[in-house]
Design goal:
Blueprint lengths: L29 E2 L2 E6 L10 E2 L2 E11 L7 E6 L5 E6 L3 E10 L2 E12 L11 H4 L1 E6 L7 E6 L4 E6 L10 E4 L13 E6 L10 E9 L5 E7 L2 E7 L6 E7 L5 E9 L3 E9 L9 E2 L2 E6 L8 E8 L5 E7 L9 E8 L2
Parallel strand pairs: 16-20
Antiparallel strand pairs: 1-8, 2-4, 3-4, 4-24, 5-6, 6-7, 7-8, 9-10, 10-11, 11-12, 13-14, 14-15, 15-16, 17-18, 18-19, 19-21, 22-23, 23-24
Amino acid sequence: MTPPRGLGLVPALIAGVLLVLPSGAAAPPATISLETKPVVFSPLQPQKNRFGALEWRGGLEISAQNSHFGGFSGLVLNRDGSRMIALSDRGWWLQSELVYEGGRLAGLESAVMNQLLKPGGKPYGSKKHRDAESIISWTSGDLSDLVVSFERRHRLVRYRAPGNALTVPGRRLHALKSFKRLRYNKGLEAIARFPAASALRGWIIAVAEGTLDKAGNHLAWLLRGGSARRLSVKKRGEFEITDAAAMPGGDLILLERAVSLLGGPRFALRRIKAAHIRAGAVLDGEVLIEADLRHTIDNMEGLALHRHPDGELRLTLISDDNFSLIQRTLLLQFALRE
């Protein structure tokens, strides 16, 4: 997406060797070296772990000497949270193993990157075709079957392959006529698929970042097969929706981001009860957390949910650094008190 106003973006000068490829050719998957630094969520109170309904479970500042690293807008974790795929809005993906110490996120290892492939097997070309914003698992935690949302050219694309589905060309899943109502760079920023234990099992919810209905709320759709049902999400002040994740029982967690020149970036997590999610509804719910520059945050855009081996339901967030020297790629993890 276009960098939000107020972040004072500068052109990225990240060191790295650009791959020289024939026109239209895909880069081979490449191992990259990640540098990670532990962070605390509340620097003013470094021992504090409880933040409303959330408990801190560790975080990392991540960097790499690779020109394609950064810009991560989407995130998905496998079932036990041991592996992640982060998706760039320039059409690249990063896969890495997550390292835990004492139950807390402590590092990343075995990282690789590659380009998203379109139907036919070539990488996506211009920005308007490769602006990927959200990624979900078709079956919760299965990284061999994934769905990606794109904005600008608004559509959902499904990828299926053993191990990491993003290594193969995608197949268009949804590109509805109603998506034409979406603004050029304010489209399908957040998607989630409801799990088998929920009343909406099999349905995908897709929420627009900044395209609003006549009442000033975010446009949204429930999608399954050829069916599409309209609903809306209540807009909260300056916040825009950047990602979503469905809980096992069908509640929906929304990640929201706001930026101002004076206050800098903020993020919030909002929980929508499953019983309220239906066609025609205007969704709203409890704000679980709202954080600003008193906390370790940046331009938070990606959200994933997994059931940790210790039984906790955990939320993991990633930031989009916009390839800027003054922003950071952060990976933050919390336990959600259900």
